[in-house]
Amino acid sequence: MIFLSYSHKDSKWSEDVLAMTAPLQKYGGITVWSDADIAAGSNWPSTIQKSLDKAAVAVLLVSRHFLRSPFIMNVEVPYILRAREKRGLKVLWVLVSDCLYKETPFEPIQAALPTSAPLEGMRDAERSAALRRLCEKMKAAWLEYERPLINPALAGVRVKRKMENLPVLKSPARRRVEVFVRADNSADWYHQGPIREGQAGRTCYFGTDKTKPGTGYHIVALTTDLAVPHQGGQPPKPLPKERTRSRETRVIRS
Question: How far is CA 32 from CA 4, 35, 151, 184, in A?
Fold first, then answer.
């Protein structure tokens, strides 16, 4: 989830950002959340806190109104900065209107767009181009967040023909991941199946009972927009179109 933080006095700008992100949300598998999504009657501070807990990216629309908001500056911003430090929450902030942002904790954080040109001072065409660039950075930050991280401890490990629940990923998947294996002497990748969100392991197969000991096998993990169908024991050619792809690691058949 991408969390959008803004002052209600800047709601025009949040609406413009959300409008620009519409294709990302419809086709890109990305959710952008703002407090406009809070249902009537909900406990809004609790809902905001839970949304921040789930966020991978925080986008801040900084203005004089933003810096004046007690809730934003005393609750949201401290949480966002702690999450940035502790769990790597990606922070993208944009200058909506000229203000004393240099007196705040944002000053040492690189802005997503040049601070020499606040959004409110731009002409319509310039503003649309700036918002497009912001959304491209939001997409890049999200894809980097969901990119599967291959387990470095697997490099050079001896494996059997069948490895139950092999710890393929370094950390739990943030999106469904498809795992593929190929031998050193082949260009064909064989689909091993998915690792679902929140999991890190997968049963993998390396050759047959006749495979020569010492044969190397490469493992790669990738995310796709569509789940990969069962291949019936045949290698998919080509590999499915990927959203993100891990580095490869190489294990050795025992």
Answer: 7, 10, 30, 42
Residue partners of 217: CB distance under 8 A and separation at least 6: 159, 181, 182, 183, 184, 206, 207, 250, 251, 252, 253
Cis peptide before 238 (omega within 30 of 0): yes
pLDDT tens, residue by residue, 33-53: 887 666 545 666 667 777 788
pLDDT tens digits, one per residue of 116-139: 999 999 999 999 999 999 999 999
Residue ranges of domains in the chain, CATH in brackets: 2-146 (3.40.50.10140), 152-253 (2.60.40)
Work out whether strand 216-223 and strand 249-253 pair parallel, antiparallel, or are unpaired.
antiparallel
Sole residue written with tokens 């006749």: 210
DSSP string, 73-122: IIIIHHHHHHHHHHH--EEEEEE-S---GGGSTTTTSPPSS-TTS-GGGS
Beta-strand pair 162-166/158-159: unpaired
